[in-house]
Every structure is written in C-alpha cells, then in structure tokens.
Design a protein that fits this description.
Ferric Hydroxamate Uptake Protein, Chain A, domain 1; 296 residues; alpha+beta; seven-stranded mixed β-sheet; disordered N terminus; single chain; 21 strands; 2 domains
Length: 296
C-alpha cells in the first residue's frame, strides 16, 4: 500500500491476523460503549450493540469476534469480514477518524464507535462524519467538550445536548454551520477549501461552486450529481486532520433549504446513524448517502 497512507490504513490492509478473540460483554445493567459495525459506508449492518469500556479493540471484542495484527494493536477482521487492501476496516470515535490503532484509544459509555468496512481509494481520509451526531461537537476523540460556536437551529439543539455553545458559528474552531452553499463559500474558509478539494477534506457529500449537490460514490470512485437534492449534512475538520477542530455543515442550495434540513436534523437526529454524510430532497427524503451514492 502507498506510504502516504495513515498508519491505520497501512496496517489494516494486511489481512493476515495474529489471533481471533471475543471477550465478555458488559454485565446486565452496566453501561456499555455503543458500537456499530457496518460495511460499505453503512449500507449493511454487521453488528450493533454495546462493548465493554476499555480500548476500542477490547470493547469491540465484547460485541463481535475480531482478528488482529501487530500484536493485537490493529483490527483486520470483524465477525469474519476481512479487508483486502482496497476494502478495509476504518473506525471513528465520536465522529472523529482514528489516527492510531484500536488498541491505543480508550472509550467509555459516553463515547460512540463506528466501524465500517469499505472501499477507501479516493477517500483515504474522512476526518469527521455525522454518524454520531451531535458528536463530535459535544464530545471529541479525547472525550473533551470545548466551547463551540453554532448557527441556529443547531445551536439550541447542541445546548440541549450539553454543548457549551457561545456564539453564532465563527470561522475557526469547533462549529456548526447552516446556510446556503454560496453564502458558506464566502463566509467560511474551511468550507471554501473543502469544496475546492473534497478529496483532501474527506467530503462524501457537498454542494459545488455551481450550486449542484454531489455525492462521492465509492463503488465507482466518482463524484456524482444528485438529482432532486437540495441540501447536504456533512462534517470535516478545520485542517482536514483528525486532530483539528470539527466542523459540521448543513448547506442548502438556498438559505431556506439549509434551514429546513437543519430543522429536520434537530427533530430526527437518528437519520445520521451509521452514515458519513447525507443529501436531502425538498421533502426531507434522503437522496444520497456519502460513500454509498444515490439512494433509489
């Protein structure tokens, strides 16, 4: 695999496992770590439940059998599903992409883990996803919840979720943006850079400079136009790295469609589960899923 790939992807491509194990799940009544295990950018569910607090790898073992490499530091197979170098296991904690192995990150019942086995060429890095909304704005990779800025109506929802929301969305730091694609291009430097280079930003859905909604389709490794879509819900980070401040964006082709999509997200946060990004139509129907492509 290319040397430019991050360590997690580099070792995940090695299919040979050092061992397979399964540990005891959380005792009845004790809090567990929410863990979702899916394939193909959330299109298929492999396992969904709670693991034992500890490292991500040990927590996952409590939910499903895993195979590991490098002395148990990296996961190469879950429930018998192994990577092959182009379709590999990637995980996010609280919506933030892991930059180290699963044995090196500790999680508790307040955290959320999403594993997905998918084709990554074309999207080597996806630094943030909406799968654990309102995380990563309410709780980051380290478990901390720094002050954030957010636009309405997401600001109110984030406060209710326990976030320390100070002002309307700034142009740096952890933030939630709501607005038309055109306005956000002018207003926010990160969104402007992300739309200019969706691959670097790890965007799997966005509104291009011409006002068209696009989705990254992993099977074809193409950015496809999404007919009928009027808004996207997506995440990235300020510097496009896992250690940079998270940025959640609800962008519409008009200000009205952006606000409507944000309101729908507030009312139905479950729509983001196990997804990297979403496109919505005028009636809030899901038109596309980041990585999966168009929804028929």
């Amino acid at each position: 695999m290319l040397r430019a790939l991050p360590p997690l992807l580099l070792v995940a491509a090695l299919v040979a496992a050092c061992g397979t194990s399964k540990s005891t799940p959380p005792a009845a009544g004790s809090p567990g770590v929410p863990i979702a295990v899916t394939a193909d950018w959330g299109a298929a569910t492999i396992a969904n439940g709670a693991g034992t607090p500890g490292s991500v790898s040990s927590a996952t073992r409590a939910l499903a059998p895993i195979a590991t490499t490098y002395g148990g530091r990296y996961v190469s197979s879950i429930s018998g599903h192994a990577g092959d170098g182009t379709r590999d296991w990637i995980f996010w904690v609280n919506g933030i992409e892991a930059s180290v192995g699963a044995a090196d990150i500790k999680v508790s019942a307040q955290d959320s883990v999403w594993w997905d086995l998918h084709r990554w060429p074309g999207r080597v890095h996806v630094p943030a996803v909406i799968a654990s909304w309102p995380m990563p704005l309410t709780r980051g990779l380290t478990g901390e919840s720094p002050p954030i800025t957010a636009d309405a109506p997401l600001a109110t929802a984030l406060r209710k979720a326990g976030a320390n929301v100070t002002l309307a969305a700034a142009t740096s730091g952890p933030r939630a943006l709501v607005g038309s694609g055109a306005v956000l291009l002018e207003r926010d430097p990160t969104w402007r850079a992300a739309v200019a280079n969706p691959t670097a930003a790890g965007l799997t859905a966005w509104i291009d400079r011409k006002g068209h909604v696009r989705v990254w389709d992993a099977p074809t490794q193409m950015a496809r136009l999404v007919p009928g879509a009027v808004a996207v819900i997506v995440a990235t980070t300020d510097g496009f790295g896992a250690d940079d401040p998270p940025v959640v964006v609800v962008a519409g082709i008009t200000p009205e469609t952006a606000t409507a999509a944000a309101q729908y997200l507030v009312q139905h946060p479950e729509i983001t589960r196990h997804t990297a990004a979403l496109c919505l139509g005028p009636d809030n129907q899901i038109n596309c899923v980041g990585g999966v492509g168009l929804v028929q």
